[in-house]
């Protein structure tokens, strides 16, 4: 789209941002509404295009993750161990159920009609939000994980669970009794984020040590030969690398390219197929805590929020930037240079 | 009298004519007158007519008789047929009767004979059946009515139906008889078993009812009276049996009690196993011969009375034993029962004034009462135990920590006792263990105490008795504890405030002079990393080392193969440690200090012990440059700064730098992980670039295996182990921090 003009600034900053660290943000699948969870115990709903705070929901503890159900409701994962459903229109919320420890991540599967949560209590739980309120009615199943769950991603009926100890479990939602695949992260440091490719063939996994691995579900040798890892979010100065954690990965819904955000405050856009970096946006004030493309891929929400990587300290204020995405920034380019053999 | 029609008539005619001629001749001779002659002829004619009339009459009579006979026969046949319930074989149809009467009769007669024979046969059958019926009926009702043929000889109904009916009746009667026989047999066998169990003579018993019954082969009476009598007898015997059984069971109970009381040896008990075994048996379960015989019961009675005597002689001993039991229960349930009653009782026994059995009963009653009370106290007691245990742990923790939180916070996972501390903390506090950083709350969760108080109050209200624990009222114990704890809390707060003040003083000092006194324990540990009091100008505090402990070990173990690229944060942490040391020793040489982090190998060589010690001792991970470096930009990573200034540092300390950090080495090490030493690992990242830049990636998946260098494999293992043990994500650290914040404020 030619109308999009490159901004010197990192994008439009949303008014009324959360007052503490942003744990996640997500665009709706139906509109430009943006759901934001934060350490200030709130879940906020913004209209990103109109820059309006549509609603705010306070929980009993820091909110570690949130996701949309439809445009009228969403779900949140909180450090007070509870999984909640939030009704935007009524401003109501109810508790879907609880874990034994803070709930780290949450996803809604349109395929299964279930909410999937991962917690530091080393379990994955599936919930049926249609059931009346109350754990005994909504809980579909509890699935033990080898370690605390750190990140979760869905595509189709696949669920990828990344936990502490660099475990990665791949489940099929239709048969959750045991993992379809049990893997170990290809990266040798703690997993920060895992996101499935939109085409459902694999997932990208980032670690605290400036590196992203591109993996494939198919266990055939031909498919596995395609997997690779690359370094990013590093700074090279005076012959030395400074390595930053890669906090966020977001796939572009149209082109399948993806953006990564690190503690260095940069957002990079990558073409995974051609193994190219497509774009690097100008530096944000502080660490990139979360990223999300809007449903048509024309907007990119960037949470610039200190992620506590160096403990408690003064830091730039938490902010949400919504930037228009120029096609050139995300569209895969024909190969310019001879590529390394894939 | 005219023309002869047949020979005899002709002959008769002839004879008559001849005779008449002869008569005419005679008359002529005689000369009779015509009148006489006419008269004589008239007479002759009259006499002839007379003879004819007589013959006709006779024939007529004969015909009537024949007809009568036929009719009679037919009637008889019809009667028999109807009696037999059969259709008459022959029905005469008069109009079709072609034959003469005699023919008719000759056809009827054999039929009649046949029917008569059949009738007799049928009648005999019926009579026979009736006789049998009568016999069985007599047997059942014990009457002696003989069968009278008259009654049977009712010929009106000899139909097959009647016979079948009678046969059915007979069948029924036979069945009934069989049933009765079986019943009698049952009764007899039951009687037999009863007699056996109770040691009675079966034959004798049965003969009383009916002598024939005792004969196993002989005729069995099946009359109602016999059955009734047998049933009564059985009932009577069963009553006796139950009576005896109860008696025996009473005896057995007593016996068991006595055994229990006196610890009777097993061998002695063995002899009465048959008795005690049946203690809870019901009537029908006791089948063993002689178990309920009079003799046996007498035998058991004798044993019981022997035991009773024995018990009396041992009464004092028993009372003492029971008392011990009572004491034990009281001790377990922390109840206090006044001992005086029992003491008195024992004295009374000794003096022989009181019936010992009474005393024993009293004590047993008391035991029962105490047991009941203990049951109602159980729930609260369990809570009390928990609380007391938690109190112990709390005491231990307090001792261990010595009110100095530094010690507790310092050596995470380093000290063995820490495990114990962690356990104690979780017991005391019931907080999720994953929150490692929340080690500070070592106080008993007030919920435990509150719940206990409310439970106890409810109990007291319900029972209207004070809840005593070893004689002390539990509520007062809890109150005392709460007060004590409150005092401790205040003391702790006071200490903390003091520390805070001290910390501020140090910070001020630091800001003023660029150095600070030994940080050992003067400064509040948890404040150190949290808001970096001294680092007014620095906005970042290095926690990287603690967060990524693997790096730390990297640098500890592998000097050569360590990917230096990972070590920025770690190094910063080491800088801190080194700084601690050097702060004390050479506070002025800040520049030199900075250099040390680059020259890490030599430093490690001589200070590895210090590193360990630091790891245990202090969480005072302080940013080294913060106090003085005004040039550090607030956003810049400290390491950047180091690198910015690296050149000058290197110039200042060329020798140390050379020892380890030749640039070429770093390059190769950086790529060790990817095994692509020639890759452009140092590719410059140009900000805001629209030109696609190749990713820095591994060529093959295998290249992702870390530390494949043989010289460092052991180090890798160590790294991974430690890594798993204390791995935490930023969010977990943050959550722990949030928790601790809310706790402090």
What's the count of strands of chain A? 30
Biggest interface between protein chains, with counts per chain?
A: A-B, 76 and 70 residues
Q: What's the overall average pLDDT of chain B, rounded?
A: 67
Which structural class is indicated by helix and strand composition of chain B? Answer: mainly alpha
Distance between the termini of chain B: 177 Å
Specify the oligomeric state: heterodimer
- Show unreliable segments of chain B: 1-5, 403-414, 431-442, 515-690, 699-724
Keyword list:
heterodimer; A: 342 residues; mainly beta; Methylamine Dehydrogenase, Chain H; four-stranded antiparallel sheet; 4% helix; globular; disordered N terminus; B: 745 residues; mainly alpha; two-stranded antiparallel sheet; elongated
Would you write up a description of this structure?
- With 342 residues, chain A is mainly beta.
- Chain A has a domain at 185-330: YVTN repeat-like/Quinoprotein amine dehydrogenase (Methylamine Dehydrogenase, Chain H, 7 Propeller), CATH 2.130.10.10.
- In chain A, 4% of the residues lie in helices and 50% in strands.
- Chain A contains 3 helices and 30 strands.
- Mean pLDDT of chain A is 90; it is low at 1-7.
- With 745 residues, chain B is mostly helical.
- Among the domains of chain B are: 16-120, no CATH class; 162-292, no CATH class; 315-405 and 416-429 and 442-503, no CATH class.
- Chain B has 29 helices and 4 strands.
- In chain B, a hairpin with a 2-residue loop joins β1 and β2.
- The longest helix of chain B is centred in the first third of the chain and has 51 residues, at 34-84.
- The chains are: A mainly beta (342), B mainly alpha (745).
- At the A-B interface, β21, β22, β23 and β27 of A face α19, α20, α25, α27 and β3 of B.
């Amino acid at each position: 789209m030619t109308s999009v003009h490159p901004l010197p600034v990192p994008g439009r900053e949303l008014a009324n941002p959360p007052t503490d660290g942003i744990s996640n943000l997500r665009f709706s699948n139906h509109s430009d509404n943006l759901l934001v969870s934060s350490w200030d115990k709130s879940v906020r709903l913004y209209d990103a295009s109109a820059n309006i705070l549509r609603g705010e929901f306070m929980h009993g503890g820091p909110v570690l993750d949130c996701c949309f159900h439809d445009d009228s409701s969403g779900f949140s994962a909180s450090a007070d161990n509870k999984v909640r459903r939030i009704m935007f229109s009524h401003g109501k919320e109810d508790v879907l159920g609880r874990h034994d420890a803070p709930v780290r991540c949450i996803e809604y599967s349109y395929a299964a009609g279930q909410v999937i949560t991962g917690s530091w209590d080393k379990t994955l739980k599936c919930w049926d939000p249609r059931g009346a309120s109350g754990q005994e009615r909504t809980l579909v199943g509890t699935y033990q994980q080898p370690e605390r769950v750190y990140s979760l991603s869905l595509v189709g009926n696949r669920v990828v669970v990344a936990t502490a100890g660099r475990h990665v479990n791949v489940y099929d939602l239709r048969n959750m009794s045991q993992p379809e695949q049990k893997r170990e992260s290809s990266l040798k440091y703690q997993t920060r984020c895992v996101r499935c490719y939109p085409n459902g063939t694999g997932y990208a996994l980032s670690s605290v040590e400036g590196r992203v691995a591109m993996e494939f579900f198919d266990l055939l040798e031909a498919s596995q030969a395609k997997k690779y890892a690359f370094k990013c979010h590093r700074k090279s100065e005076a012959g030395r690398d400074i390595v930053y954690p890669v906090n966020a990965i977001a796939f572009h819904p149209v082109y399948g390219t993806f953006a990564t955000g690190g503690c260095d405050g940069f957002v990079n856009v990558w073409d995974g197929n051609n193994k190219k970096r497509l774009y690097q946006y100008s530096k944000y004030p502080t660490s990139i805590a979360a990223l999300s493309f809007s449903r048509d891929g024309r907007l990119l929400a960037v949470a610039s929020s200190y992620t506590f990587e160096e403990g408690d300290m003064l830091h730039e204020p938490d902010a949400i930037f919504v930037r228009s995405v120029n096609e050139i920034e995300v569209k895969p380019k024909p190969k310019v240079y001879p590529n390394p053999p894939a | 009298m005219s023309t002869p029609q047949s020979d005899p008539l002709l002959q008769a005619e002839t004879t008559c004519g001849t005779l008449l001629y002869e008569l005419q001749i005679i008359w002529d001779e005689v000369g009779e007158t015509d009148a006489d002659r006419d008269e004589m002829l008239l007479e002759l004619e009259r006499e002839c007519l007379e003879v004819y009339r007589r013959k006709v009459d006779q024939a007529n009579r004969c015909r009537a008789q024949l007809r009568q006979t036929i009719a009679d026969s037919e009637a008889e046949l019809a009667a028999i047929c109807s009696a037999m319930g059969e259709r008459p074989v022959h029905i005469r149809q008069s109009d079709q009767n072609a034959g003469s009467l005699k023919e008719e009769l000759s056809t009827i007669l054999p039929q009649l004979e046949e029917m008569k024979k059949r009738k007799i046969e049928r009648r005999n059958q019926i009579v026979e059946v009736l006789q049998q019926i009568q016999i069985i009926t007599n047997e059942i009702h014990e009457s002696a009515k003989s069968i009278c043929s008259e009654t049977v000889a009712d010929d009106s109904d000899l139909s097959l139906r009647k016979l079948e009916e009678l046969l059915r009746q007979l069948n029924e009667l036979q069945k009934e008889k069989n049933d009765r026989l079986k019943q009698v047999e049952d009764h007899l066998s039951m009687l037999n078993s009863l007699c056996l169990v109770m040691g009675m003579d079966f034959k004798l018993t049965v003969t009383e009812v009916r002598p024939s019954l005792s004969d196993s082969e002989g005729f069995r009476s099946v009359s109602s009276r016999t059955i009734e009598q047998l049933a009564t007898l059985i009932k009577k015997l069963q009553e006796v049996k139950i009576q005896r059984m109860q008696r025996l069971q009473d005896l057995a109970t007593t016996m068991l009690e006595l055994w229990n009381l006196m610890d009777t040896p097993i061998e002695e008990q063995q002899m009465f196993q048959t008795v005690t075994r049946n203690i809870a048996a019901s009537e029908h379960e006791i089948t063993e011969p002689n178990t309920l015989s009079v003799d046996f019961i007498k035998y058991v009675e004798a044993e019981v009375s022997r035991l009773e005597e024995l018990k009396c002689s041992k009464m004092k001993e028993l009372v003492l034993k029971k008392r011990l039991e009572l004491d034990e229960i009281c001790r377990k349930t922390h109840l206090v029962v006044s001992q005086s009653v029992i003491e008195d009782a024992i004295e009374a026994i000794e003096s022989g004034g009181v019936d010992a059995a009474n005393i024993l009963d009293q004590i047993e009653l008391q035991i029962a009462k105490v047991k009941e009370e203990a049951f109602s106290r159980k729930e609260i007691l369990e809570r009390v135990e928990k609380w007391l245990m938690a109190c112990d742990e709390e005491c231990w923790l307090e001792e261990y920590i010595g009110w100095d939180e530094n010690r507790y916070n310092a050596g995470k996972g380093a000290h063995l006792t820490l495990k114990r501390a962690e356990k104690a903390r979780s017991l005391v506090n019931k907080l999720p263990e994953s929150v490692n950083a929340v080690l500070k709350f070592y106080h008993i969760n007030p919920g435990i105490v509150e719940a206990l108080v409310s439970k106890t109050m409810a109990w007291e209200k319900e029972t209207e008795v004070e809840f005593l624990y070893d004689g002390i009222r539990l509520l007062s114990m809890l109150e005392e504890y709460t007060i004590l704890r409150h005092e401790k809390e205040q003391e702790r707060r006071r200490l903390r405030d003091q520390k805070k003040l001290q910390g501020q003083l140090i910070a001020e000092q630091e800001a003023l002079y660029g150095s600070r006194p030994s940080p050992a324990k003067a400064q509040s540990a948890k404040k150190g990393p949290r808001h970096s009091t001294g680092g007014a100008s620095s906005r970042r505090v290095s926690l990287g080392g603690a967060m990524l402990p693997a790096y730390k070990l990297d640098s500890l173990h592998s000097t050569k193969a360590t990917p230096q690229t990972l070590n920025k944060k770690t190094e910063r942490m080491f800088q801190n440690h080194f700084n601690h040391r050097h702060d004390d020793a050479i506070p002025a040489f800040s520049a030199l200090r900075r250099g040390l982090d680059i020259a890490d190998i030599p430093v490690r060589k001589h200070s590895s012990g210090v590193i360990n010690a630091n790891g245990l001792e202090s969480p005072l991970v302080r940013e080294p440059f913060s106090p003085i470096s005004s040039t550090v930009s607030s956003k810049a990573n400290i390491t950047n700064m180091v690198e910015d200034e690296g050149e000058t540092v290197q110039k200042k300390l060329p020798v140390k730098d050379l020892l380890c950090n030749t640039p070429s080495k770093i390059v190769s090490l950086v790529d060790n992980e990817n095994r692509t030493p020639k890759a452009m690992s140092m590719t410059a990242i140009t900000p805001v670039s629209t030109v696609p830049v190749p990713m820095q990636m591994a060529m093959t998946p295998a290249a992702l295996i870390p530390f494949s260098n043989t010289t460092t494999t052991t180090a890798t293992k160590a790294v991974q182990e430690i890594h798993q043990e204390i791995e935490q994500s930023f969010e977990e650290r943050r959550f722990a921090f949030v928790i601790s914040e809310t706790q402090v404020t």
